[in-house]
Amino acid sequence: MARAFLNNKLQLLVPKTFMEQSQESIAEKYPDPNSRPSVVLSDKEEFSTLKIIEMSQKLRDNEVARYKGFHMSNMKKESNLEWLGDGIKTINGKTVGFIKVIYTDRNTFGYFFFTSMDGKLLFLMFNCVDKLWPALEETAEKIVNSLKVK
User: Fold this and answer.
1) Strand boundaries in the chain, DSSP class E
2) Confidence check: pLDDT of 130 > 90
3) Which end of the chain is more exposed for a tag (fewer CB within 10 A), N or C?
């Protein structure tokens, strides 16, 4: 189901089972306002989650690849990651970077994707327990490939 977020500046296809968490719940779970998601959606059990974070960092479309390299270099310092893939693609006219990993210490799959919106970094994360990843891979790809920034 296509849903609009961030004052209709972002549109994504999100499973009907994903419910948006309240701002109070988000503030409680993510107390640091500098890294707090603007939107968090999850299934009923919170086995899978989609986070949308509007970052203050300036970013233009032609800088997405450089940001991906920077983000990957920071992530590679972590010893608890199994790398599944990364790349740059164009989705609905926007340059989008992505990184896929398994956090082996948490048994969690992470699909990070990012682009520019209003000249700033828009960072999105799809997470799920790793045993659900094979079944949810198509769902995650549909979310990513549906991204529309106005």
Assistant:
1) 2-5, 10-13, 19-20, 39-42, 48-58, 81-91, 94-103, 108-117, 120-129, 148-149
2) no
3) N
Domains of the chain: total: 1
Q: Is 85:110 a contact under the CB 8 Å cutoff?
A: no
Cα distance between the two ends of the chain: 18
CA–CA separation, 131 and 107 (whole Å):
8
> What's the domain range around 95?
2-149
Cβ neighbours of residue 104 under 8 Å, at least 6 residues apart?
A: 80, 81, 82
Q: Which of 126, 125, 128 is nearest to 53 (CA)?
A: 125
Q: State pTM to two decimals.
A: 0.93
Give the Cα separation of 109 and 48 in Å (integer): 9
Query: Among residues 98, 97, 123, 100, which one has the least CA distance to residue 110?
Result: 100
Q: Read off the pLDDT band of 81 (50, 70, 90).
A: very high
Structure-derived torsion over alpha carbons of residues 60, 54, 117, 5, reported in degrees to the nearest 10: 160
Picking from 122, 123, 75, the residue whose alpha carbon sits closest to that of residue 102 is 75
